[in-house]
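Usage

Read records sequentially. Each one opens with the input sequence:
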Amino acid sequence: MLQDIIINLATRSSNKVGIETNKGCYTYQQILFESTKVANFLKDKVKPNDHVGLIFNNEPEFIFTFLGILMVDAVAVPIAYNAKKEEVEKMIQQCDISLYISLKPLYKDEQKFIDYNKIRKYKCDSFQFEDNKYNRENSLACILSTSGSTGNFKAVMLSHKNIVENSIAHAESIELKKQDKFLITMPLHFSSTITTQIFSCFYSEVPIYLCSLPIFPRKMLDTIKFNSISCFAAVPTFLNVLVNAFRNENSYGKVKLCIASGSKYENHLHEKLVTLFPNITVLQTYGLTEASPRVSIMDKKDSKLTCGKPVKNVEVKIIDSNGEILGDGSIGEIHIKGPNVMMGYYKNEEATKKVIVNGWLKTGDIGYLDNLGNLNVVSRQNNVINSGGINIYPEEVEEILMNFGGIKEILVLGEDNTLYGEIPIAYLTVNNHCTINKELLKKFCIEKISNYKIPKKWFVVKELPVTKTGKIIRDSPKDKLIIEHWIF
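and closes with the structure output:
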């Protein structure tokens, strides 16, 4: 079903460019041809439902391989382009990968390796491939690793229907135009890149521009400037680096849309971003790999930063600790239902049953719906600090503290305390070796934060640990944080 999108595009808009890079471009017809070449190369090497890995940087070959795997009714298992051999080995073993395709061997058993250069040389003179013609919509399309904010590995199974319906729902929400051009800044193996960038752009007939990673701020801005980029998506961590490096530049007026995902996009960042991109609209989203990933997104007319309303065919409800549905403004766990909810965790039925109950996905995230139906995410359930019987949502405290000058990143955690059970403590990094003024910080906290929420200890650290998606790892052992000095 997913591959039908490119087949239809090659018929309808065969000569229109679908992928651009700094080395050239590919029309939809060429994308289909290259994908078919992969399929014909694989057809005698894999069986339907075999798991086939693919390891590429942000290159067109990733897309050709992904589609080619699906064309032979196999299952695509994307692996991070910068994964170490041990990580590749773990993915191959845990996801039962029979073969993997890349430009170099990254696993001890080289019999499992297919060199993409051999596929390049493979002679394929037509677009024909064997099509079993059965209904694929509910069959497994891909397996994606996820860590969330905990850093713990799980393998998420997504069906063709999961990705197709979610990519269309996202595309219709952001209303891309055919004259747009979408820059991909995130790794292609992410669920958000596959669903809400590659396939959403295919659905909207919007060309995507691929850059090899890592993409540094100057490289990104030059790419935008010289390639007429109008839209892109990014994690707030990257946007923060971007605006801090080039806050005085403002020659990027052609950019009209940014999709912020992966973590919370905050007001202080937004104020800086609009100086760099004066005509930009930023849409904050909410999603998770288990939801294909898009759950909700802001409307372009929204003036207040929220995670927006659920996308088409997705339901959201807020549940308290007793399983009761809460009303507007009441904080509880976010549950979702819709065609985007994953098939389950691969080979982990126990974990699947814990998070999918009667068709509803228990996200583990804490939030509320406002009176307009917009979703507001407050915290992860496991992140909540219980201090003296009162819940403290660390992300809420972090968002406020990011407005204090000099703080680059901040992580608020709970520490065991004999009197209160837990107390909040703060670990932070600073901009350009700034010195944090203790008295000014105390004054800021007293003015902006309720007393019980104010961190009781403050540490400046060399760096905060992040996942490969740029999310801060909240359950990283505290003794792994290299403390440069104690503020108070």
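Summary fields computed downstream for this record:
- Residues 387-486 form a domain with the GMP Synthetase; Chain A, domain 3 fold (CATH 3.30.300.30).
- The chain has a mean pLDDT of 89.
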